[in-house]
Here is the input.
Amino acid sequence: MHLHIIGICGTFMGGIAALARAAGHRVTGSDANVYPPMSTQLEAQGIALIDGFDPSQLDLKPDIVLVGNVMSRGNPLIERLLDSGLPFTSGPQWLAENVLRGREVAAVAGTHGKTTTSSMLAWILQDAGLEPGFLIGGIPANFGASARAGKGSAFVIEADEYDTAFFDKRAKFVHYRPRHLLLTTLEFDHADIYPDLASIQRQFHHLVRTVPALGRITWNAGDATLRATLAMGCWTPLVEFAREAAAEWRVRLVSNDGAAFEVLHRDAAAGLVRWPLIGMHNVENGLAAIACASGMGVAPSRSAEALGRFTGVRRRLELRGEVQGIRVYDDFAHHPTAVAMTIDGVRRQPEQGRIVAVLEPRSNTMRLGVHRAELAESLDGADRVWLYQSAGLDWNLDGVAAELGAKAAVMRTMPELLESLVSELQAGDRVLIMSNGGFGGLHDRLLAALRARPA
Here is the structure.
């Protein structure tokens, strides 16, 4: 069968493309923003990519078209698709019918930590010999790919609440019918889709309604919004985890930066994690993955050992290089809470160098300015802050910089930003480049410019 995927270069649709290709289907696709790592991952699998959304691509006459949620009515390609009579469906629907049916699905949902926790859970199951399938909104370093079919019955999926397609406005995750549901945190996000937190809670309640009574819901008992959401109705056994609140699964820190912690199950020591990750958010993610994996047959001590071999996820505080004693990191910050957690994690390290935050507010919610009041506070833990006022941002960052005082600056062009960074960075600095997009290739451009700078 020939599948043509419109909007193929997002991590979700790109993952579906990889799964379809592995199943023996011919796969082609198109997108308007093609950049690594997804583009290179797809091309390496023999998937032909078309740049843009010209209607002529339907001349390929695919057997079915998968439509990503980036597409809307009025787009010439979508209008031709509807006129053509070609069969079409959404990515989540195709996934549910062709990959997830009959599998032991473990879905990881929540505002923060989905990608990392999904990656941890998949790695734990893999390390235990269960050969899981997975579809994750990032690339776990342990696997080197965002998706695979797997040989075992388990399938781990990162389950987000974004809408499914222009013809299906339900949240994507209601399609997945998980037996195991892991809930991380719940805050207001996706302001382009949802008007308020209550509407997002309703979608999570719909997800909870799909989990069978013989399943299991592992949830963060320290999150009051999740607690209120589950109080709307739940028919599945609940398992609580929390880093600080009282819960069945808890932690005891061994190192202040989170590089080592003990897992407690009903207050009894159940495993020790020593890993290359840092930050309290990652401690919480690791605890959640261990708690969920226990319901899938993996002993917590075995899970803890597996996490000791977990090497992270691309674009989640990923070290891109070090030049002249300056370390440059790439982080997928999309929300003020995520920004604050990243900075806090780095601050807990024993190193004494400056923390330099370089932020591009690029997510749809950030672009709308919904979180502008919290942004300065989230960045306050950094020693120096650069804010990038991109052309697509609908509001002015000068107010955020004013709240932060002399340590913050706003840049309006990429050359200006690069020049300013190169002129000021010094040995010992830890540069956190934060964006949920490509940020104009700033990471590599900065490293190259630092190499060319006199020592």
